[in-house]
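User: structure tokens for this one?
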Amino acid sequence: MGDAINEARALGQKFVEKYYSTMARSPKSLHGFYAAEAQLLWVFGDEELTNVTDVQTRLIDLGIESGTISFESFDSIPSPNLGVVIMTAGAISGAVRPMRFVQTFLLTFHPPHTYYVAGDIFRVLNEAPAAVPPPPSPAPAPTSITQAPTPPRSPVTNPVAVEHAQHAEKLHEEQARLHALQQQQQQQQQQQQQQQQQQQQHQQQQHQAQAQAQAPPAPSPPKPAGTPSWASKLFG
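Assistant:
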């Protein structure tokens, strides 16, 4: 996971530098960073822009080519399917309307080795930042209240690991369902075989009974030759 984060951070660094350099020098070329099906939401106060063409026109109207764009910080993490999520915070100075902003990108991988912006959220924080010193903090009053312990931070969940775990759980459930289905089919086959055997035995018994009923009676044994009958004894 450490290698994936380092790779996402290196890719995010290169993307951010090239993206904001293009925005400052040639905002009309910004569309080259976006996929055809990209989703955008650029918020300038009450104004919302949702397509690249309107964003380019708005940046040109702001005189961004005469200003300077600087990003103060950025973070990036890997996302499923070789994607990268990037969040930046920066400022535009020297233009018609200086402003501070935050922006989040979702980059998706397009083989063989190209990344395009699939999602982009840009929001202006303020248009004329003023350096106002904070008011002095009052001296803390003595107190005997015991501060509650800070709860432990939840571990950061890796979206790729979550997706793999969900896939493994679904695969295990599907295997269990198929195993139960196979057992049910085997039981049904055994029951069918038993029924067929019982039917065959019943048919054999019926055939034997019919054969016995249709057979002719056995003939009487012949009398031995030379043996006189009762009539010959009485009248002979």
